[in-house]
Amino acid sequence: MSRVNVEIELPDTLATQAKKAGLLEPEALERMVREALLARRVEGLVQARDALTANPLPPMTPEEIQAEIDAYRAEVRRAARP
């Protein structure tokens, strides 16, 4: 586990309330950071979905799908070689 020293400036009233609520404890801060990171990942997925909805990819033919599968398998074989 990494140790990160963080210093934040908060208005006195907010700092007092956060401390009383236990929000400045390491466990609470870890939870908030994890939640914020998850929210950003979800937002990125939402944006990607919206972009695809606005500009959908054309459907692939069965031949194109098979070509992609073949290319993937060839790459896996190349990567497996010593």
What does this protein structure show overall?
The protein is mostly helical. The chain has one domain. Helices cover 70% and strands 0% of the residues. It is built from 3 helices and no strands. The chain has helices at 12-20, 26-54, 62-80.
Estimate the strand proportion.
Answer: under 5%
- How many discrete domains? 1
Coarse morphology: elongated
- Rg calculated over all Cα atoms: 24 Å
Q: Give the N-terminus to C-terminus distance in angstroms.
A: 34 Å
State the total count of DSSP E strands: 0
Please write the string of helix (H) and strand (E) elements: HHH
Sheet of most strands: none
Helix content: 55-70%
Average pLDDT, all residues: 96
Derived from helix and strand composition plus strand pairing, the structural class reads mainly alpha
Low-confidence stretches: none
Q: Please count the helical segments.
A: 3
Features of this protein?
single chain; 3 helices; 70% helix
Short description:
The chain is mainly α. It is 70% helix and 0% strand.
